[in-house]
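Below is one such record:
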Amino acid sequence: MHDGRPHPLLAQVPLTVSPFINLPTATTLPYTYKSLPSTLPASSTGDTTGTKKPKYVTSSSGHAAHPDEIIASCKALQAHLQQVQDDAERMLKDWEEGIRRRELAEKRRLAPGWLDRDEKILEPEKKGSSGEHHPGEHSPIMNLMDRQDVDVSNTGLAESNESREGEQLDRAFGGLGLK
């Protein structure tokens, strides 16, 4: 409405009265109604010191808080998460230590005393470390292919070739006997 007159476009729209719409009616007040005073007394349950900070940060759920309260709750959450992470790391370290102790106990059960000494008795020697090996000498470490049998009979060339082939097979496959 401009200056008490309706807008010209709205004046052209006809209004209809519907029997299904009830307009609001004024409510009647009870006789015991008393109006509230213009100033309210201090609350008996609230903070009377006046240090209460206004809660002007409101979430979509309706929760209101002061920024200092939000920061304090974030710090408390961060401390809780740090404590949970430290507990998880300690549990993982204990678990790994338990696995290591069980493996060590199993190794000590299989070879008692082996892990407790600095010198290792069962350590094999290197081939070149004990000195040079001469072909005529008997070596404790010898390849099966390097072994030559002295009991070769020279009865004939064909027989010696067959026996040499057999000896070579015996040397290669460990001298399997026929039964």
About this structure: Helices lie at 8-11, 67-110, 157-173. The chain is about 35% helix and 0% strand.
